[in-house]
Amino acid sequence: MSDIRHSLLRRDALSAAKEVLYHLDIYFSSQLQNTAVPVVDKGTIELVEEFIFHVPKDRNVQPKRMNSLQELQLLEIMCSYFQEQSKDAVRQIIFSALFSPQGNKADDNRMAMLGKLVSMAVAVCRVPILECAASWLQRSHAIYCVRLAKVLVDDYCSLVPGSVQTLQQIFSASPRFCCQFITAVTALYDLSSEDLIPPFDLLEMVVTWIFDDPRLTLITFLNTPISANLPLGCLDLTPLLGLVRWCVKSPLAYKRNIKPSLSNGHMGKLPREMPDSEGGDRDSKPLYSKLHLSVLQVLMMLQAHLTEKNLFGRLGLLLFENVAQLVEELARLVSELNPLNATKETELSLDRLAQALQVAMAAGALLCAREDLRSLCSRLPHNNLLQLVMSGPVQQPPHSPYQPGFYPHIHTPPLGYPPRPASAAHSTLPTHTAHPAHNTHSPHPTQTFLPGMNFPYRPIR
């Protein structure tokens, strides 16, 4: 490595960067011929950091930096290389060697170059780079993933009006990248503040993707060996949790951002879900309703996929602790908006939460005990549908292959009757004699619901 380094020091910045990329190709192609798991050694990483990301190895050496034109030329060289490299394994290992965060001062330069490369790949539809970026998003820490997502959102949803169409077109080119991108943007935009509400163009694009093909959200899960040890802090296997958060929190989050009328009679800033002043219809309410329906459809699909993988009742794609965090965020929003009379929005949020919980438990995506859910939702305001979900499902019978204590299928007993307890295994009962005939009873009057009476529900015990 020292000989290569001395040779690179005599070159200009662009020529040295091109030479490092050429060296990586030879080095890893040779390794893959001899071993199935190539090793990215420290010397290789140092060459990449010094001559591509311009973090000098020696403090006394002045770093060689590329101007904007040279940087653009290098990005074009990288695009061409990844496009022309026919071996996916070589592409993936070189992409990882270039852009895997190392936790050092070179990471800022590394992330800046990665954002520009992926943005260029979107613009010119370079599928090999998008596929490499999808793998990178799956392996890297969520902190770095949301940084890359923010770059793409800024480039295609904020800076140039109408450029979101370019990003939207990659749906058919690289669905795997789209799945990881959705997971990253739902982790970035968690609706915790006005700045973290997804831009309208981004929301519309994500909803269109998922509505057109709900299976898009499951691509990473369906193509990832569950036994593989993913790094701590990485993104979820699916974007389902983030999408449920968008649907559940959006009515209250947008309500929170409505500015009250000022004392001088002028109105404050309109929330993003209201039509804008330019005449365009920017109402996001139908989009969230459409997204909620799509998410429920995806959750219903999961039962078949989990059963096929022999994971039904064993793997929850919606972790209970993450659902608990969502409920905590919702409770804070409700408390914050109480003076604003957000009754309608609160009811809609709680209805969506109840529906998501019910379908997720029925599909086996959420594994938890009924008592845990009762305790978890005790801080939320009363909601009839949520009340039914908390008290409705009965436990699986003992002969069920699923774990006791969980109830992936939901069966709500008829109203007015207590839940039927789980039946125990029993031996064949002896035959008994028939009872004598008895007189026919007079018919009872039919029970009717009186107008104005609340819909009955079983209280939590």
UniProtKB/TrEMBL annotation:
Basic and acidic residues composition bias: residue spans: 270-283
Pfam families from the UniProt entry: INTS15
Compositionally biased region (Low complexity): 422-446
Region feature Disordered, mapped onto this chain: 264-283, 419-453
Matching PANTHER family: INTEGRATOR COMPLEX SUBUNIT 15 (PTHR14540)
Protein name as it appears in the record: Uncharacterized protein
